[in-house]
Amino acid sequence: MRMIDVIIKKRNGKTLNAEEFDFVAQAAAKGTVPDYQLSAFLMACFLNPLSDKETALLTKAMAHSGARLDFSEIKIPKVDKHSTGGVGDGVSLPLAPLVACAGVAVPMMSGRGLGHTGGTLDKLESIKNFEIRIPAKLIHRQIQKLGVCMFGQTKDLAPADRKLYSLRDATGTVESRPLIVASILSKKYAEGVDSLLMDVKYGSGAFMQKLEDSKKLAKSLVNTAKLLGLNCRALITYMDQPLGRAVGNANEMYQAIEILKGNKALAPDYYEAVIETGAHMLVISGREKDLKKARQLLEGFITDGSALKKFREMVKWQGGNPAVVDTPEKFLKNAKLQLDFKADKKGYVGFIDAKLTGRAGVLLGAGRNTMEDPIDYGAGIWLHKKAGDAVKKGDVIATLYASDKKRLEAGAELFAQGVKITAAKPKPYKLVNSIIK
């Protein structure tokens, strides 16, 4: 088989078969064809979009381009969740150990933040010595013993995706919906899970800003996952404004621990996102049939301390100091410089723009523009007020943290552009817009 023949076939709008996708995936993983041919293949797929069946075949080929995790002898449901990314979206942090309390296995492979959106791995690493690069054998052992492991993609898992992803960014093919779907699902399929819950965001802070586009992506993800034999559904969730109160890394981890301690009043929208996402994970895994009962079960694990205990055990298993659970303020410290952003008039917090808040977080040092940029784990934003809260002139809406004065000033200037004070109280927004099954 020749790469040029595969390129021409797709360029002419014809359907590719499993053998051809396997050839492309192996070539990408092993470097047996030049980048310019892989780039031409991606552009052909962009101009002649893959069908759902083709997308499933490409996804499977990419997942099989390297090693796969195999939990087949673990006789309990295996379920994971994937978010398309947002601002303050640290839901995975408390979610994975919480759901594992219900007797399902949660092998959760996550990524790093890039641009204005945060990354689960960066937040986990705000706990000193927390190890996210774990060999497959140790992931397997931890899942057997504990039921949960949160880790990063190894070089052996879906290597074709890593290559094609980097080329998509450089060839103007990022927006191709089938290629997005194949990239997301190839890593999840390589995990060896039975079920997958997709959290597809819409709004200014989301990858897909328009609701209609988010729904189309969600439908493609669900349809393709089902063709791969995965139980899957998607939640379409709001990301016009930041989720929760924390934007950063250490402060998001602090918020997650407080939620597991039962402090739901700290961030009600964040708590709702954790419980709602977890309930759907239990239903699609077959652990529970009824969403209401699933929610009650998860809330019970928080109330009786089971979820916090599970999180503590996970931290210990992965090299962190479990004392972070008892005194998070001691181990998850904010950066040394801070600035209070205050209301300039009386009224209501009408809106806090998610994208501008996320970009402000990057300027403060909490995020990165390129994968090589260092992270300041203590940098970030704490929202004392959220949309709908009444304020008087001089009330503190948010506190910004940075380790550098220029970063602090730049972040504050940008954050200010995203905050709107209104005379009338804004209507509350709905966190979950719809469910795609």
Describe what you observe in this structure.
The protein is α/β, with parallel strands linked by helices. It folds into 3 domains: 3-48, Up-down Bundle (Transferase, Pyrimidine Nucleoside Phosphorylase, Chain A, domain 3), CATH 1.20.970; 79-156 and 172-325, Nucleoside phosphorylase/phosphoribosyltransferase catalytic domain (Pyrimidine Nucleoside Phosphorylase, Chain A, domain 2), CATH 3.40.1030; 333-422, Alpha-Beta Complex (Aldehyde Oxidoreductase, domain 3). The chain has a 4-stranded mixed β-sheet with strand order 1-4-5-13, with helices on both faces. Strands 6-9-11-7 form a 4-stranded antiparallel β-sheet. Strands 10-8-12 form a 3-stranded antiparallel β-sheet. The chain has helices at 3-11, 18-30, 35-47, 52-63, 92-100, 120-124, 136-146, 159-171, 177-190, 211-227, 250-260, 268-285, 291-303, 306-317, 328-331, 354-364, 405-417; strands at residues 79-83, 106-110, 148-152, 195-202, 231-238, 246-248, 337-342, 347-352, 380-383, 390-391, 396-402, 419-422, 432-436. Helix 9 crosses helix 10. It is built from 17 helices and 13 strands. The chain is globular.
Describe the SSE topology:
Blueprint: H1 3-11, H2 18-30, H3 35-47, H4 52-63, E1 79-83, H5 92-100, E2 106-110, H6 120-124, H7 136-146, E3 148-152, H8 159-171, H9 177-190, E4 195-202, H10 211-227, E5 231-238, E6 246-248, H11 250-260, H12 268-285, H13 291-303, H14 306-317, H15 328-331, E7 337-342, E8 347-352, H16 354-364, E9 380-383, E10 390-391, E11 396-402, H17 405-417, E12 419-422, E13 432-436
Parallel strand pairs: 1-4, 2-3, 4-5
Antiparallel strand pairs: 5-13, 6-9, 7-11, 8-10, 8-12, 9-11
Helix pairs in contact: 1-3, 2-4, 2-8, 3-8, 4-9, 4-10, 5-12, 5-14, 8-9, 9-10, 12-13, 16-17
